[in-house]
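User: Please predict structures.

Assistant: First:
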Amino acid sequence: TLSFVNLATGDTKNIDTGLHPTSIIVNGDKAYVANTASDSVSEISIVDKKVNRTFPIKWGKMNLFGAMPNSLSLRGDTLYCCNGGDNSLCEIDIPSGTTRGFRPAGYYPIQAQISSNGDVAYVVNSKGNGSTRRKTVHNAHDFEGTVSFVPLTTPIAETSKLVAENNGWNR
């Protein structure tokens, strides 16, 4: 859920979004919430305190179970989602609410910042290029993260094909 809390009175209004909301970004009177376990993004009206629309993460007509959108960035009418489950940066066209396509990132991307000119996304990947596993203890902190420089000027159809191949969506 997403909660609106009046700090002066303590009054709270909860809104059901998707499962496991992990990121929020605000643009004017709208907020966008990444729903990691629902493989979707919710568009919230801040004024009306309700979900306006839900954008499923799709490749063509295929719903992508396990895409795991976990972080959001915004530039113009484009919403960028770090999809940890398919190791990509997903682009969503906000006016239509549809997925434009995907760009390859590193292993489990968790945050992206878009360059000021919009040509590059700087993507932090939590699991990096493998691990620095110790010989005796294995835990989540053994991974060494990386940063990917993702060009946003390459046609999205080309990069989407590569992400589809990497994830076996063409089977």
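Second:
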Amino acid sequence: GQNHARIYNKISNLVGVADPNREQGVTVANRFGVPWYEDYNDLLSDVDAVTIAAPTSFHLPIARKVAGAGVDLLVEKPLAGNSKDAKEIISLAEKNNVTLAVGHIERHNVVVQHAKKCIDKGGSFIFSKNMCLQFLDTFMSGTSVQRNRVCTDIMRYAASNTENRYNHIYS
């Protein structure tokens, strides 16, 4: 969430940081000169959009409240832990006429973009899961399940324009 706060602070009007972890939330809020909220519900009447950068198991309950308040939302990947919850989040956005986006930030990483260009031109790029996990460990916290999801997304994205993507990436 702190990277989202940094970007929002640059391109928009960051109005607050909600984080149940007081130490982390206050640190990020102070960095950008905005108030900290322990409960995101306290922010919903003051914002046009929010990022849900919570553990995946909390995405659906938070999305219910955010969409129900008529607030646009960006949900960090994955959208949900299963397809039933993902469909409900999508349905909530449609029902409440709010914009829903899913953050796939690593797709814009310079290394991933280079791999994609190489593969799109018919070349090969060895992108092993272990290499990907080591790369992510340098800047990404979270569980191994979360990092594995990011690696899977990166590899699928990098090979998305190829006729037979499995000839071009290795996991």
